[in-house]
Amino acid sequence: MLRVLILVSLLVVICSCESMFNEINNSEQLWSSELGLERGSCISCLPSVSEKTLEKNQLTFNIDHILCIHLSMEPSDFEQMREESRFGPTTEKWATLWGGVVLQSLKCDAPYPSQFNWYSGNISIDGLNISNVGIRKKGFLGSIFSEVPSIKIVTNKYVKGQYLGTTKNITLNNNAQDTTRVTTCLNARVFELAGYPAPRCNLASVTINGQSMGAYSHLETIDRDFLIRQFGNDNGHLYEGQLVDFWKNCLPRWEPKTKQTNSFGQPLLAIIKILDQVTDELLVEKLSQHLNIKRFITFWALEIILGHNDGYASNQNNFFIYLDPNDNGRITFIPWGFENGSNYESEWSVKTYFQSRLPNRLSRIPEVIIQLENEMNLLLKQAWNEAYLVSLIDDLSIQVKSTESSAHHLYYFNKLKAWIPKRRAEVEILIQKGLPRQIKK
């Protein structure tokens, strides 16, 4: 309960790009900046058609290219949209809304509510224009109070067959909890370097109704196109996980994401039964029939290395699972919600990454811990190229500065850059000391 309360309290205020500096004193500015809530002054981009906008006839995820996105919609629609949340209008008294969020988060025997509405609008991306697209707010807790909302766009929502190249789903995350705005794309790139199935990412400068919103992450939507690209099929069960774990009474909380996905979570019953009933001696054998354990260990290791403190291993949050027909229906975890890590600003105990149900049970198996330690060492060699990652942060910081101006950006960019070379030594020390074993809940 405490973790949920802390999470809610950290996410409840997200300020707009307009001048916050004239309204609060310096100490309040720094507090807001440390939480990633303020954006300073934002700079609208000038759309221009570029050969980089589309790659292989799809909207690009080239990390070297920042998209220039202009949205327009009825002003009244936009004002209504930015006040929406999954738990009711943000114009409600905060205490009432907080209580609703906490209550919904602690109870898992019913789906989360969804009060997001679709609106019609027009979009220009690097000068490529599409009219009458579907637009809605997106997000869970991080976007609840945002004046700078995360956005979902569906190009063919109202016009059948209308695409941008072959792209129809566009996800724009507001990076509201990330002081640098680059963490989502940085972490996605590390997963990609590791050869792990994860969404691609690049930055976007977003303007809505002439008001610049600053730097967003253009994150690949986890949809059927993603599944075909990563798994070679799209007919398996796909669920999104938000503050949920493998417990029978929590099945309604697993959110189905495709039409063919079982809406009652029934495909997850087998793995829940194993976790409930199977002894440690038989756990790996039985679990491996329903979970790609080797791939899960890679996922788990990457969350630890990146310090991703709001993912599955540490907080049962921000992830998808896919039951891959090409892998005998076994589960693969897909990362999501990268902006709340890397954990470069504070120290978190490694025990945090052993709290969720699968890590907790698997950590009792010595062979699994050895595999996890070996995988972490391998990932440090293959995916943790300090020179490249620091250079990437430098490049992305230039993109961010082209769309936002903040007195605190340089401080946090330098802090993130300093963390990259330190992280290898920190992880190696973790491994030398030995990762936690035989944790019981």
Fill in the keyword field for this structure.
441 residues, alpha+beta, globular, 14 helices, 36% helix, 7-stranded mixed beta barrel
Sketch the topology as an H/E string, one letter per element: HHEEEEHHEEEEHEEHEEHHHHEEHHHEH
Structural class: alpha+beta
Mean pLDDT: 86
**Euclidean distance between termini CA atoms:** 15 Å
Percent of sequence in beta strands: 15-25%
The helicity comes to 25-40%
What's the total helix number?
Answer: 14
What's the number of extended β-strand segments?
15
User: Which outline best applies?
Assistant: globular
Strand order, main sheet: write it out: 4-5-6-7-8-10-9
Rg, please? 21 Å
Uncertain segments of ≥5 residues (pLDDT<50)?
Answer: 1-36
Largest sheet: 7 strands, mixed, barrel
Structure in words:
The chain is an alpha+beta fold. It is 36% helix and 17% strand. It has 14 helices and 15 strands. The chain has helices at 2-11, 26-34, 75-82, 94-106, 183-193, 224-231, 269-277, 280-287, 293-306, 312-315, 357-362, 366-382, 386-401, 409-433, and strands at residues 41-42, 54-55, 58-59, 67-73, 119-125, 128-137, 151-154, 169-173, 201-208, 211-219, 237-241, 255-256, 319-324, 330-335, 404-405. Strands 4-5-6-7-8-10-9 form a seven-stranded mixed β-barrel. The protein has a four-stranded antiparallel beta sheet with strand order 12-11-13-14. A two-stranded antiparallel ribbon has the order 1-15. Helix 9 packs across helix 12 (366-382) and helix 13 (386-401) packs antiparallel against helix 14 (409-433). The two termini are 15 Å apart.
